[in-house]
Amino acid sequence: MDRIKAVRIIAVAVAVSGLVEMLGWFFGVQALKSVLPSMVTMKFTTAVSFFLSGITLFYIAESARGRASVAQAIIPVTTLMVMLIMATLLASSLFDLKTGIEDLFVEEEAAAVKTTVPGRPSLVTMADFIVFAAVGIGSLFRYRGQKHHLFFSGVFITATGVLALSGYILGIEYLFFSWPGVSTGMALVTAILFELLGAGLILLSRAF
Q1: Of the four listed, 70, 115, 174, 206, which is most buried by Cβ atoms within 10 Å?
Q2: Are 62 and 69 in contact (CB under 8 A)?
Q3: Strand pairing partners for 183?
Q4: Half-sphere exposure (CA, 13 Å, Cβ side) for 50?
Q5: Which of 11-15, 129-133, 145-149 is predicted with the least confidence, judged by mean pLDDT?
Q6: Whole-angstrom Cα distance, residue 125 to residue 75?
Q7: pLDDT exceeding 70 applies to what percent of the chain?
Q8: Residues 6+ apart with CB under 8 A from 99
Q9: Cβ proximity of 32 and 10 under 8 Å
Q10: Which residues contact 186 (CB under 8 A, 6 or more apart)?
Q11: C-alpha distance from residue 200 to each of 30, 118, 138, 194 (Å)
Q12: How far apart are CA 67 and CA 25, in angstroms?
């Protein structure tokens, strides 16, 4: 299997997973929002961002294959939406403000597990999506060092997913970024999807 095809499969898996998580919120299916009731939920804004990021990754792969026309129309929209959502959430975290984006379309209960503010994802989740959106914007251009940008961004995103997954396996909350009063924990499924997104970028770094 060639790298581009593998990336496209990863992209579809991430986008579909994000969509399924969104449906889990709309229909109140707890098993979709979090694997177990005692675990951190994937926030709705995170699910939306994975859906958009999966689409972005797919069209970055298309661009790498030489099909840039559609990618240039879609990537600016998807990356701008992810950047806007996550940058707003990050600002609300840093300045201790509630913007309302935390309750976008759905509202999370106040007693959500390992959650500092209902509907607000982990600080590291926000950072990962902002890094990914920056890569998406960069993919619209050809510039020196692009391969390194893709590779190191992929390594960073994958590493956060691996670290969070390790935290779940070892039972160490700080490793999945659950920092009381500072950051909501990263959901288990979120960690897995970040590993996939990061792996997709690493594979793409060899295609540009």
Answers
A1: 115
A2: no
A3: 179
A4: 32
A5: 145-149
A6: 20
A7: 99
A8: 88, 89, 91, 92
A9: no
A10: 40, 121, 122, 124, 125, 160, 164, 176, 177, 178
A11: 28, 30, 15, 10
A12: 35
Measured between alpha carbons, how far is 94 from 1 in angstroms, rounded to an integer?
43
Return the number of other C-beta atoms located less than 10 Å from residue 174's C-beta.
Answer: 12
**pLDDT tens-digit readout, 157-175:** 999 999 999 999 999 999 9
Q: Is this model's pTM higher than 0.90 or not? A: yes
146-163: average pLDDT: 96
Q: What is the pLDDT of residue 102?
A: 86
**How far is Cα 154 from Cα 109, in angstroms, rounded to an integer?**
33
CA angle, residues 195, 51, 44, in degrees to nearest 5: 95
Counting Cα atoms < 13 Å in the Cβ hemisphere of 174 gives 0
* Amino acid found at 87: A
Rounded Cα gap, residues 193 and 73, in angstroms:
25
Residues 194, 196: Cα–Cα separation, whole Å: 5
Cα–Cα distance between 161 and 167 in angstroms, integer?
10
**What's the one-letter identity of residue 17?**
S
Other beta carbons less than 10 A from residue 18's beta carbon: 23
Length of the chain: 208
Where do we find the tokens 């998807």? 78
**In this structure, how many other beta carbons lie within 10 angstroms of the beta carbon of residue 182?**
11
- Give me the residue label for tokens 């996939």: 196
Domain extent listing, the chain: 3-204
